[in-house]
């Protein structure tokens, strides 16, 4: 499948266009596309049962402000970064060639590895951004959203967009050798970050099956309280480095005194107080 699509891309575009504007357009399509199911859910009362902060809905003004800022940062920060990647990537053995297309079995191990690398990098940079000396200059902007919604994921100061963006490119720079790998990775990474900010913890979400996956419950708590957890993807960094204490206390209270069975590997399924009808106190 990759081969057919990539043949069409190579036949129609110059490599610089593929790495720059085309990757940019792909990013926009996936990012805003990943938001649409969450946006649709916002329109129906029925889905409130799985909303993490059920009484909070973003106003139209908030969404419009977010959209305007995002478009500016996408054009003036992300697009130049992608163009820069075009010039840097060949030094790391990166290619766009047909013969170098990745095999599906390579992607199967690379995508989880990229998530782990990105998560570790994100944890420390994000934790650094919360240092009281720098917080108000950079990261405060991302925290304008105390009850985030999908596209609030990339709503951030340009400095933050740049430094956290490096984390997304780290894994591919060291382990991937092809633009297709970057595109596949971008797809999963964008869907993940939009989910993190979706404001929903729905029981049918396939990510519920991934051990140690933080999901929206984990990151939403960070937006609500400014406390840890700081990770983007998994729960293990905050657990190991002790920055999930407030989150765990909150979960314990929410669940009426009993923590989930296997925290930090599994803890989801409790978006809000109303979602657990039979609370039991130990
Ligand atoms: Zn933060
Ligand atoms: Zn966030």
Description:
The longest helix has 29 residues. Helix 2 runs antiparallel to helix 3 and helix 4 packs across helix 6. The chain has a domain of 191 residues. Helices cover 55% and strands 0% of the residues. The protein has 9 helices and no strands. It is an all-alpha fold and 282 residues long. The model has no long low-confidence stretch (mean pLDDT 89). The protein binds zinc ion (2 copies). One zinc ion binds next to helix 7. This is Fatty acid hydroxylase domain-containing protein. Belongs to the sterol desaturase family. Keywords: Membrane, Transmembrane, Transmembrane helix. InterPro entries: Fatty_acid_hydroxylase (IPR006694), Sterol_Desaturase_Related (IPR050307). It is found in: Membrane.
């Amino acid at each position: 499948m990759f081969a057919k699509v990539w043949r069409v891309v190579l036949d129609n575009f110059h490599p610089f266009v593929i790495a720059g504007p085309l990757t940019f357009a792909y990013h926009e399509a996936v990012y805003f596309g990943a938001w649409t199911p969450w946006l649709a859910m916002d329109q129906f009362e029925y889905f409130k049962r799985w909303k993490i902060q059920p009484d909070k809905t973003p106003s139209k003004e908030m969404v419009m402000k977010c959209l305007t800022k995002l478009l500016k940062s996408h054009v003036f920060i992300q697009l130049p970064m992608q163009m820069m990647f075009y010039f840097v990537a060949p030094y790391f053995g990166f290619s766009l060639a047909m013969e170098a297309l990745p095999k599906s079995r390579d992607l199967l191990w690379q995508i989880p590895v990229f998530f782990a690398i990105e998560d570790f990098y994100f944890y420390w940079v994000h934790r650094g951004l919360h240092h009281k000396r720098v917080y108000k200059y950079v990261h405060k902007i991302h925290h304008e959203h105390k009850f985030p919604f999908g596209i609030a994921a990339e709503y951030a100061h340009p400095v933050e967009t740049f430094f956290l963006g490096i984390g997304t490119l780290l894994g591919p720079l060291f382990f991937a050798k092809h633009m297709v790998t970057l595109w596949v990775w971008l797809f999963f990474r964008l869907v993940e970050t939009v989910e993190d900010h979706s404001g929903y913890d729905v029981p049918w979400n396939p990510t519920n099956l991934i051990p140690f996956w933080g999901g929206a419950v984990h990151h939403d708590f960070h937006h609500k309280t400014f406390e840890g957890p700081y990770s983007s993807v998994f729960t293990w960094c905050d657990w190991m480095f002790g920055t999930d204490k407030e989150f765990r206390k909150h979960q314990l209270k929410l669940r009426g005194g009993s923590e989930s069975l296997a925290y930090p590997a599994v803890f989801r399924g409790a978006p809000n107080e109303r979602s657990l009808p039979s609370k039991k106190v130990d």
